[in-house]
From TrEMBL:
Cofactor note: Binds 2 iron ions per subunit.
Organism per entry: Rudaeicoccus suwonensis
The protein, known as: Ribonucleoside-diphosphate reductase subunit beta
Domain of life: Bacteria
Subunit-level organization: Tetramer of two alpha and two beta subunits.
GO terms for biological process, alphabetical: deoxyribonucleotide biosynthetic process
Length: 335
């Protein structure tokens, strides 16, 4: 039987016996991100979250609603990311250094889920209501349906990664999860969560979120680098039509996030309201578009400049150009 796996010089491939030797390293960026992820390892209970209880209890109903709403969204979606990685990414790569990173990322997503469980266990939050929200609130349901639509294609059937359409589905899934979910929607929530610390509230909760943001910044780097590598190695994907589709995914995601943020902060809290968050969302989306090589769409400035170091983690590349200065393709360093 003839193998349908991609050549070992390409990152895409499904051959079981390929990718069994780590050295020489072919994708140095993936190996470097794995080592950084290992160095970043942490555990939720290292943070004394109970010290924030007094803050939580004296917060307004709107502020407590915001924290609960974020937990309602973050908790199931961390596990949804793991399904996207397990079904839609890991099986279609043959580079062992990429597999190493994905294995660490999947552990990190599980660790984030446990971190949010720690929040639910520590703060006086109704767990049943928090769990139900992601299935009951239309704006939250719409976001989850968007993500599920892409992973369903990959979970219900095996992609033929040798075809153009199979490779397109692979890239669509990466954009949906790495760029939209982790790079825009999660970062929007991170900003809201960390805004409490800006007012000297929930400082330990803020430290927990810092550690999660640090992980997610690497997830975003890996996803962007992987998208660009696949595009570089597969010229058949480099069409104007496909580029327009990817760009529209980001624009649609912003509309969904704007509706969600009005449910997150229906009346606003001190120093923060839905319009402020949505300006930040548009700023984030512009950064992600530019990181994929598109022009910024909204052209807004960052209203939360204190979050800038968490946002601008990538060097600019072009969606359809082979030169990517943020990593070395087929690097042999360290081999």
């Amino acid at each position: 039987m003839t193998s349908t796996a991609a050549p070992t010089t390409a990152i895409l491939g499904t051959g079981i016996q390929e990718g069994l030797l780590l050295k020489p390293i072919r994708y140095q960026w993936a190996y470097d991100l794995y080592n950084q992820a290992v160095a970043n390892t942490w555990f939720p209970n290292e943070i004394q979250l109970g010290e924030d209880l007094a803050d939580f209890e004296r917060m307004t109903d709107e502020e407590r609603h915001a924290v609960t709403f974020l937990m309602s969204y973050f908790n199931p979606n961390e596990l949804l990311v793991n399904k996207a990685l397990a079904f839609g990414v890991y099986p279609y790569l043959n580079a062992p250094e990429a597999h190493l990173y994905l294995a660490k990322q999947m552990w990190e997503e599980a660790n984030h889920c446990m971190a949010f469980e720690y929040v639910l266990e520590t703060f006086p939050i109704n767990r049943d209501e928090a769990y139900a929200a992601h299935a009951d609130i239309p704006s939250m349901v719409a976001k989850e349906e968007f993500e599920v639509r892409y992973i369903e294609r990959m979970a219900s059937q095996t992609l033929d990664i040798t075809t153009t359409e199979g490779k397109r589905d692979f890239v669509r899934n990466l954009v949906a999860y790495n760029v939209v979910l982790e790079g825009i929607w999660f970062y929007s929530g991170f900003m809201v969560a960390l805004s409490f610390r800006q007012r000297n509230l929930l400082r330990n909760f803020g430290s927990l979120m810092d550690w999660i943001v640090r992980d997610e910044s690497l997830h975003l780097k890996f996803g962007i680098n992987l998208i660009l590598t696949v595009l570089e190695e597969n010229p058949d994907l480099q069409t104007e039509e496909f580029a327009d589709e990817i760009r529209q995914m980001v624009l649609d995601a912003v509309e969904m996030e704007e509706r969600y943020n009005h449910d997150l902060l229906p009346r606003g809290i001190l120093g923060l309201n839905a319009d402020y968050i949505n300006t930040y969302v548009r700023y984030l989306a512009d950064r992600r578009l530019e990181e994929l090589g598109f022009a910024a769409h909204w052209g807004v400035s960052n209203p939360a400049k204190w979050m800038a170091t968490a946002n601008d983690t990538l060097q600019l590349v072009n969606f359809f150009e082979s030169t990517n200065t943020s990593y070395e393709v087929n690097a042999q360093a360290g081999s």
